[in-house]
Write a structure and sequence with these properties.
The protein is an alpha+beta fold. The chain has 28 helices and 54 strands.
Length: 1120
């Protein structure tokens, strides 16, 4: 709310009236250009313009049923238009001054109009309705009688031969000046009007006459607009006296007054469905509510105590019974039944409730509830009352009253007698219950946990704008609810998480397992103590959550009726079990629920459980990415075959290479025809046979395979093929050098002859030179994969196996076997061995590859597609490699995964709302986003050096070996909590302040401005823990503001000293009014005094001299 959606600009001059259609995407406007325009706000265009008025158009309104528009104008007429055929249906004349307002009755065929001729007129348009709803016909005798009766009522002569479309039914005269507004009541035969005589008048009418009922006096300037409340017996008016007043329609007395300092009010409107009103003033508009929509309530065990229809009621969550207990008397000044009550506190020991009422100083009422549940609400007896902004029970026979005006907490007993008075430790805004004898006090910047016994603050949490406090059932956790945020803290007031919402938060309650469920304007959401949040359900209307029980959320709606909403708690129960590492519960939820969705997959990836996310995903691309993340090569092979694109095969090859599964790497390189990497793979695995076949392949690739062919020849040590390739491409020098180096004299002579060189060039010998010849492979690793690191099978993988063994027992073992692991313990693989302590190196290694075991299952090979992985015209004898793993390798692939990097200690900083912690973690972007949201900073160039300084100071580096980079460590402080070393502190800022003072003292204003701005940048990155530090930081900001302003004035005075002495004196005089330290203020006064004397302005010089002497300057300065 409050955001500009669109602008429509076609009127010439001011727009005075506007109205929306109740069903169509249309609105109509009228302005000072005498025109009425109909707009389509969905298409963002003007449909057409209605012309006819001869002066300003004041108001326009739609009819509630017919396709009509009514307009009132300064040409003293009212016009009714058909917006479908764009014709003027009728022109109503009779007013003899500007018609300020005209509107249709919400139900009947009536019009009310207000004019500056001091009259309000009611028009009967039933004839117009009959004329345009049926075929045209001559006036009947009944029509003539109706015209005559209306004329008699209004005191005019009947026009028997005139028009009967719209006639004046009543003329209401009673205002002493021009009437600005008149409106019908939505259901009753009442009219309200406001005029320049500063009065609001209420009129009643029947079939034959209309009369004045009463007058509301209180405005002290012209009444601009007045209307009835759509659902309550209230009248609302606004005026040029800068006030909006609310009147009791029954008693005709003023209930409330809302004032604005400098803006006059001109217009007002009410929302047709919601409790919202809008008023336009000189500089804009305001949207406001009259009554508090949140119903006061309290929950104790299975009972809900709440207030509805002047009755304190109790609702039983178990049985669903709703019983009225006590009927309360309507307090004077309340807007409606129950309205004005802002809080309810229940005392289970004494079975009594405290009701808190709104008002200028506030008040409370203490009611004793009956022990049984009566059939009818009983009248209260011995009601205790008093004044206080808020009241809550803090013990079985004590309650606390907050005296906001005097900043006191008064503890009273049940007889309403004061037992103690406590001065608040700070300027408190509100108080809430926090357990026996404890209170939560909210200030402008923090929340205090206050002990009323010892009268001191126990804990403090920096958070602003707290409106509600909700404790968990075991009182171990508390939710601090603000307008757009929820903070979760423990009972020591240590913040666990903080979330922000764009929509307004209405309230919430704790689930029985420790999850906070809250509602916004259109959603029910949840937040875990860790800060994870999500959406449970979408709402059509806002509700106020009172209790969460299993799959049911009990709420109160705006009509204060209990409504039960069914929800699915599976998602947040799953996340909570995962956060608490309750893996049995996680597996149970996975097996018994249909938990799917991108949010769950993203959450599992974020929390480091990609193997669990893999269980949910069926979409190939996402499944492929998850398989790579959790190191499940078998599933990655399966999904890569489904995707079958070069990017997927390349990623698969990279991941398989990390885990040592070079057979999958070979197959992937074949599919994407990556010949260079494939050749190198054959080299490092000792597969000489396939290297020779690669050489033949590159020969057939002509120019495209020249370099690859040369590399293969180098890998094989085939000198003859190297020389042959070099001669073919015309590189005779390199060919001769290669032949000569390897002692092939005949080949060298042949090269010289081919090149046409008669004299052989001389080659310079290099000492200790050796031929580049690859060594022969000793161990050929081409048939088996490299030894893999043994890692214990994860909990979830074992759980999935138990789930899947019954369904996959009859299926052939293929790539999907990665999720069907053996139930036996995985044997140690490779040289990392088992867990034996006996390290006898003479024993045989525990890993022995089976000679008879094939590397791939031959029954499931990759079928060539298109041009295939190799050239079609070559029969190379290299079989296409299958991509299905045998049972043992599938199990190994699923169990083997590289250990993930542990969480960085600095990752915890990124959950903080302090920008300096994000800078310490190296996340400059999130730090800038926080500063932009918190202090509206947009230019971060000046922060660059400060960010780098903080980041560098929060880390230390330890040199490693010569060929590796140094190892970085985060530097912490604190024993229990690891927090970064504070680089920017209050003391460092004060030290910079001293340097800035020295610069000011020496007249270096440019340097001083730089230093003071540096302090302001440092201040936003200071972490304060004590209230004294907060005060010092606020003082630093004030000092920097004054000194920056003063230094800029000092620079301007120096710049204009020669060119404009008068301006220089003026600026120097301004400089003396900055809040500076006495020595600096003395210097500014002394400098301005000398300038004034030099300019012969003795009066100003005398005034400056008096101020200087009052500060007790040094002797030489005072003598001058």
């Amino acid at each position: 709310m409050g955001s500009l959606i669109d602008k429509f600009e076609e009127h010439e001059g001011p727009v005075r009236g506007i109205a929306f259609h109740n069903t169509q995407p249309l609105f109509v406007s009228g302005g000072d250009d005498y025109k009425i325009k109909l707009w389509n706000w969905k298409l963002r265009r003007c449909n057409f313009t209605l012309n006819g008025h001869l002066d300003y158009v004041r108001t326009v309104f739609f009819h509630h049923e017919a396709p009509w528009i009514i307009s009132a104008s300064d040409d003293q007429t009212i016009r009714i238009w058909n917006w479908q055929n764009r014709n003027c249906l009728s022109i109503l004349t009779g007013h003899n001054h500007y018609v300020m307002c005209a509107m249709f009755h919400p139900k009947d065929d009536l019009i009310v109009s207000a004019s500056l001729d001091q009259s309000v007129r009611v028009w009967d348009i039933s004839g117009l309705r009959k004329k345009h709803s049926t075929a045209p016909q001559q006036p009947t005798f009944e029509d003539i009688q109706r015209v005559a009766a209306a004329a008699a009522t209004s005191g005019q002569q009947p026009d028997l031969f005139g028009s009967t479309d719209a006639i004046v039914k009543y003329v209401l005269e009673g205002h002493d000046r021009g009437v600005n507004w008149a409106a019908f009541h939505p259901t009753l035969p009442l009219i309200v009007s406001g005029a320049d005589d500063r009065q609001v008048k209420l009129w009643r009418m029947n079939e034959t006459k209309a009369w004045e009922v009463d007058t509301c006096r209180g405005h002290y300037n012209n009444v601009s607009c007045v209307l009835f409340h759509p659902r309550a017996e209230l009248i609302i008016s606004d005026s040029e006296d800068r006030t909006i007043r609310v009147w009791d329609m029954t008693k005709r007395t003023a209930l409330q007054t809302f004032r604005r300092e400098h803006d006059r009010f001109w217009i007002m409107g009410a929302h047709p469905e919601l409790n919202l009103f809008a008023a336009g003033h000189d500089s804009g508009l305001i949207v406001f509510k009259l009554e508090r929509e949140r119903p006061p309530h309290a929950v104790f065990q299975n009972n809900l105590f709440y207030l509805r229809d002047k009755t304190i009621r109790v609702y039983d969550f178990t049985s669903g019974s709703d019983v009225g207990l006590v009927s309360i008397k309507k307090q004077s000044g309340n807007l409606a039944s129950g309205v004005g009550y802002r809080g309810l506190s229940y005392n289970p020991a004494e079975h009594s409730v405290l009701l808190t009422l709104t008002g200028e100083i506030g008040s409370y009422e203490l009611y004793s509830l009956p022990k049984d549940k009566p059939s009818e609400p009983r009248e209260p007896s011995d009601v205790k009352r008093g004044n206080g902004a808020n009241t809550v029970f803090i013990a079985r026979n004590r309650f606390a009253v907050f005296d906001k005006a005097n900043q006191q907490i008064i503890v009273k007993d049940l007889s309403n007698e004061s037992t103690k008075t406590i001065k608040t430790p700070a300027t408190v805004v509100d108080l809430f219950y926090a357990g026996t004898k404890n209170l939560l006090l909210t200030t402008a910047t923090s929340v205090l946990l206050f002990d009323t016994e010892v009268r001191q603050t126990v804990a403090e949490l920096s958070i602003s704008g707290v409106r509600q406090v909700v404790w968990s059932p075991d009182n171990n956790l508390v939710a601090l609810v603000s307008k757009h945020s929820v903070a979760i803290a423990n009972k020591q007031l240590e913040q666990l998480s903080l979330i922000h919402e764009t929509m307004k938060i209405k309230g919430g309650a704790w689930d029985e397992i420790g999850i906070f469920i809250f509602s916004t304007l259109n959603h029910i959401k949840y937040v875990l103590p860790t800060g994870d949040k999500g959406i449970i359900k979408t709402l059509e209307q806002p509700v106020y959550i009172t209790k969460v029980k299993g799959k049911s959320v009990f709420t109160l709606n705006r009509e204060v009726k209990v409504r039960t909403i069914a929800i699915d708690p599976t998602e947040y129960r799953f996340k909570l079990a995962l956060c608490n590492k309750n893996y049995d519960e996680v597996l149970h939820i996975i097996r018994t629920s249909n938990l799917v969705g991108q949010s769950i997959i993203a959450y599992l990836q974020k929390k480091g459980y990609p193997e669990v996310a893999l269980h949910f995903v069926k979409e190939p691309k996402t499944r492929f990415e998850l398989a790579l993340e959790c190191g499940n090569v078998a599933v990655a092979v399966e999904t890569a075959r489904t995707l079958d694109n070069d990017d997927a095969w390349a990623k698969l090859a990279a991941e398989a290479l990390k885990s040592g599964n070079h057979q999958v790497v070979e197959a992937a390189y074949q599919r994407i025809k990556n010949f260079d990497r494939l050749s190198f793979l054959y080299l490092i695995t000792g597969n000489v046979d396939k290297l020779r076949k690669m050489l033949k392949i590159n020969e057939s690739r002509k120019a495209a395979g020249v370099m690859s062919r040369y590399h293969n020849a180098l890998y094989l040590g085939d000198v003859e093929d190297q020389i042959k390739m070099l001669r073919e491409v015309g590189q005779y020098q390199l060919a001769y050098l290669t032949a000569k180096t390897h002692g092939l004299e005949e080949e060298a002579a042949s090269i010289l002859e081919t090149a046409g060189i008669e004299t052989a060039p001389e080659l310079t010998s290099i000492g200790n030179a050796r031929l580049l010849k690859p060594p022969a492979p000793i161990i050929r690793q081409c048939d088996t994969n490299w030894p893999l690191l043994t890692i214990t099978r994860g909990f979830f993988e074992g759980g999935f196996v138990q789930t899947d063994t019954t369904t996959t027992a009859t299926k052939p073992l293929a790539v999907s076997a990665a999720l069907a692991l053996e139930d036996s313990t995985q044997e140690a693989v490779g040289d990392w061995g088992g867990d034996d302590d006996d390290l006898d190196l003479d024993d045989e290694p525990s890993y022995k590859p089976k000679a008879t075991q094939p590397s791939f299952v031959t029954s499931a090979t990759v079928e060539p597609e298109g041009d295939g992985g190799w050239e079609d015209d070559l029969d190379l004898g290299i079989e296409d490699l299958p991509l299905d793993l045998p049972a043992q390798q599938a199990n190994v692939a699923a169990d083997i995964k590289l250990p993930n990097q542990g969480p960085s200690p600095q990752d915890a900083y990124l959950r903080s709302q302090l920008a300096v912690y994000h800078v310490t973690a190296g996340s400059f972007e999130s730090a800038m986003q926080l500063l932009n949201r918190q202090i509206a900073a947009v230019n971060f160039v000046p922060f660059q050096s400060l960010f780098l300084q903080i980041y560098a100071a929060s880390r230390t580096w330890m040199p490693a070996s010569a060929d590796t980079p140094p190892i970085s460590f985060a530097v912490f402080t604190g024993e229990e909590k690891k927090v970064p070393v504070p680089v920017v502190t209050v003391s460092s800022a004060i030290e910079t302040l001293q340097n800035a003072y020295a610069a000011v003292k020496s007249g270096g204003f440019s340097s001083a401005i730089t230093l003071f701005r540096q302090i302001l940048r440092e201040v936003v990155l200071i972490v304060v823990e004590k209230r004294s530090d907060v005060e010092e930081v606020n003082q630093l900001i004030s000092v920097c503001r004054e000194y920056i302003l003063g230094s800029r004035l000092g620079l301007l005075a120096l710049e204009t000293r020669e060119s404009d002495p008068k301006r220089s004196l003026e600026v120097a005089a301004y400089f003396t009014h900055c809040q500076l330290q006495p020595p600096h203020l003395q210097r500014s006064l002394h400098s301005a005094m000398l300038k004034a004397v030099k300019m012969k302005n003795m009066a100003t010089g005398l005034n400056l001299a008096k101020r200087l002497l009052e500060l007790g300057p040094p002797a030489d300065m005072g003598q001058q």
